[in-house]
From TrEMBL:
Biased composition (Basic residues): 131-140
Alphabetized SUPFAM superfamilies for the sequence: Prokaryotic ribosomal protein L17
GO annotations of cellular component type: cytosolic large ribosomal subunit
Protein name: 50S ribosomal protein L17
The organism's taxonomic lineage, starting at the top: Bacteria, Candidatus Amesiibacteriota
UniProt xrefs under NCBIfam families: L17
Keyword tags: Ribonucleoprotein, Ribosomal protein
Stretches that traverse the bilayer: none
Biased composition (Low complexity): 117-130
Family: Belongs to the bacterial ribosomal protein bL17 family.
One Pfam family it belongs to: Ribosomal_L17
Superkingdom classification of source: Bacteria
Amino acid sequence: MPHSIFGRKLSRDTDQRLALLKGLAGALIRSEAIETTEAKAKAARDLIENLITKARRATLNDIRLIESVITDKELVYKLVHDIAPRFKTRAGGYLRLIRMGIRSGDNATMVRMELVSPKQVSQKPNPKSKSSSKKSSPKK
């Protein structure tokens, strides 16, 4: 009976797998979009979305938990101050996986993992008023 099995193994032992997931999280925060295999992206998705949720709250304890995963202080700052405020009103689903095709070397499915950009309200210009632009002068 397999109890307490952590996510996907990715053909790695525990330390290598955790280092891989932390590296993917850091790379995604740095560039906001990365290309990787589908299996790695699906394995890293839970970790990254959990980090963004903690960054939205941004308590001292949450920031320390983020720093335990992402050791680069600049990336932690970017996550808490730049990325997380974009998702203040979003309940979840911060990432998008877009299939790119198959890698020719080993036939692995490649995906582009990117942060979902928040919906921006499109502001339409106000219609021009119909005042006195078509007034015709009466002829005498």
